[in-house]
Model the fold of this input.
Amino acid sequence: MLILALAGMTYYLDTSLNRVDALADYDGRVGDTPGTNWLLVGSDSRTGLTPEQEQELSTGGNSGPDRTDTIIVMHLPSSGGPATMVSIPRDSYVSIPGYGEDKINASFAFGGPQLLVQTVEEASGLHIDHYAEIGFGGFAGIVDAIGGVEMCLDAPIDDPLAGINLAPGCQELSGSDALGFVRTRATALA
Done:
């Protein structure tokens, strides 16, 4: 059963991927660094969503250029040791090439994945070898593909803007509810 689930998830992910060249060369690019570095990005992209899906996921429609909500550098050492992950707060002020000082997530809005990679490389001194991004639809789709996620809440969460009304206690969240949970800001607990 586990093999069938893994095969289904692999097929879903492979057929759902949009490929972008986020690793463009630029003058003064950081040279190779030991190990392999991934830039993992969660964005508020609604690309590919139908109006019905936008309503189901309570995305609020298009809110301008895509922004990054989550930015993580994952380092895989050459030695085969455990991975290290560092989350970069989206509101961190950095120098964005061609734009000056601003929040790091603005680099994605200004220049897409390429400028975000360049900004992270220049701010961290790490060479980024791979880039992976997930938007709203992809996040909800992955949660649904694995059969939901268990969440235990101490208090209810009612956030009409995020499209959730969750009771306290343990429960299985669907993709749309999980997306609403990670996006909620309009509650006393947020």
Summary: The chain has five helices and ten strands. Strands lie at 36-43, 68-76, 84-87, 93-96, 100-103, 130-134, 149-153, 157-159, 164-166, 169-173.
